[in-house]
């Protein structure tokens, strides 16, 4: 699981400076990320390494996500931040 410091860093890095991304990522990181399994938390860290324009294109479905594992996380973010798979 994420340490408190790692979680705070992810919250900070989820603030992308692009309002549209902030509206999608911040609720997800605040409401859903702490409840996710460690593997998905680490995958979210990897997702944040991507360029803002790519993230935005994936989240609004303009372009396909090139990595199936990232696609599953993008789908989860798009669903609603508080809706997690059982």
Could you please describe the fold and organization of this structure?
The protein is mainly α and 86 residues long. The protein has a single domain, classed as Flavinator of succinate dehydrogenase (DNA polymerase, domain 1, Orthogonal Bundle). It has 5 helices and no strands. The longest helix has 13 residues.
Any key phrases for this structure?
62% helix, 86 residues, DNA polymerase, domain 1, mainly alpha, 5 helices
Describe what is shown at a glance.
The chain has helices at residues 4-13, 19-31, 38-47, 52-59, 68-79.
CATH class: Mainly Alpha
Instruction: Give the CA-CA distance, first to last residue.
Output: 18 Å
Poorly predicted regions are: none
Overall tally of structural domains:
1
Write the layout of secondary structure elements.
Elements: H1 4-13, H2 19-31, H3 38-47, H4 52-59, H5 68-79
């Amino acid at each position: 699981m994420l340490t408190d410091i790692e979680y705070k860093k992810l919250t900070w890095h989820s603030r992308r400076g692009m309002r549209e991304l902030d509206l999608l990522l911040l609720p997800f990181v605040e409401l859903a990320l702490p409840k996710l399994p460690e593997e998905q938390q680490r995958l979210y860290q990897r997702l944040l390494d991507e360029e803002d324009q790519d993230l935005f294109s994936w989240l609004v479905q303009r372009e396909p996500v090139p990595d199936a594992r990232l696609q599953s996380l993008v789908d989860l973010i798009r669903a609603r931040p508080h809706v997690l798979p059982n």
